[in-house]
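Hi support team,

I submitted a single chain yesterday and got back a structure, but I'm not sure I'm reading the token output correctly. Could someone confirm the output below corresponds to the sequence I sent? I've pasted both exactly as they appear in my results page.

Thanks,
R.
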Amino acid sequence: MAGRPTLTRAVALAGIVIGGALLCSVAVLATSPTDSSQRELGHGAVAATSLLVVVWELAAVGVAIARWRESTMGFRVVLALNSAIVFLLAMTLLGWI
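Hi R., thanks for writing in. Yes, this is the structure output for that exact sequence:
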């Protein structure tokens, strides 16, 4: 039983880090000048962190389903925020945004 809160805490922390990395990479892409190496770096960072967010979401949903009662409110908030990011990414990929 002692390992369960530690797992949800670790997954929540990973979600915060990955979500923050996505926001930072989008900020780099938005502020970089056209046709520069910084812009190319921003494109690569957005693509990589977008994939990490989706992979994290799949793992976090698995943890949430298995251990919903033991999960903390912080974990649930991070899960909801990253779910919104994955939803927006999916809408972008489908061309709805």
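A quick pointer for reading it: The longest helix spans residues 37-66. Let us know if anything else looks off.

Best,
Support desk
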